[in-house]
Amino acid sequence: MMLLELLNEVVDIDTDIFLSLNRMHSPFFDYFMSTYSGKWIWIPMYAAIWYVMLRNFHWKVTLFCMVGLALVITIADQTGATLIRPYVERLRPSNLENPISDMVHIVNGRRGGRYGFPSCHAANTFGLAFFVWFLFRKRWLTVFMMGWALLTCYSRIYLGVHYPGDLIVGTLIGLLAAYIVYRLFLKVSGYKTMKKVPHIYAPILVGGLTIVGILIYSTVMIL
After folding, report:
1. Maximum Cα–Cα distance for the chain, whole Å?
2. What distance in Å separates the CA atoms of residue 97 and residue 32, rounded to the nearest whole number?
3. Domain containing residue 198
4. What pTM does this model have?
5. What is the pLDDT of residues 180-201, one digit of tens each?
6. What is the tally of structural domains in the chain?
7. Which InterPro entries has this protein been placed in (predicted)?
8. Is 8 inside a domain boundary?
9. Is residue 180 included in any domain, yes or no?
10. Which tens digits make up the pLDDT trace of 43-63?
11. Is residue 189 part of a domain?
12. d(Cα 215, Cα 223) in Å, to the nearest integer?
């Protein structure tokens, strides 16, 4: 009984934090967050990460890296979407069946699917960010990737489709998936962390330009 009461209290706190963050919105950030939260907008940055691999690793190691990244995303995504969501059945805050849905700010009428625990966006983006961290061990690339993933998580709260708790658990799933796959990658590929990695700032440059592009687009749209 005490466990149930504790769980209800945690859920209430999670909801209060969500509503506090979600109610802070503006037309500019409606455009920014909805675009930033998209998947296809980040393809150039993903390509830049691949470019760094190609420029620094033997083609076989690069192949193992790409397979590893695919495994991280698959494990992180399916753990949330297939193994957890159908059993937990936590409604998204934006879902019309949720009692708080009338208080939730959404953008372009998008409410997402029915269930949102855990967040696959958080699992996927942090899975990628952690794998890149384990792989390269470079401070500024790590800072950028973590910041990118963190803002992605915030965008999901802003858009009204995830509670903070959804995102925290999704992040932990992404971390676990990245660590397991990275350890497997080391055994299979024999990869050793490099001290110098030429072109390591390419993902930061491309990702940064993408963010600038989103900022410009959002500004133009509200004029």
Report:
1. 58
2. 27
3. 29-222
4. 0.94
5. 999 999 999 888 777 788 899 9
6. 1
7. PAP2/HPO, PAP2/HPO_sf
8. no
9. yes
10. 999 999 999 999 998 888 999
11. yes
12. 13
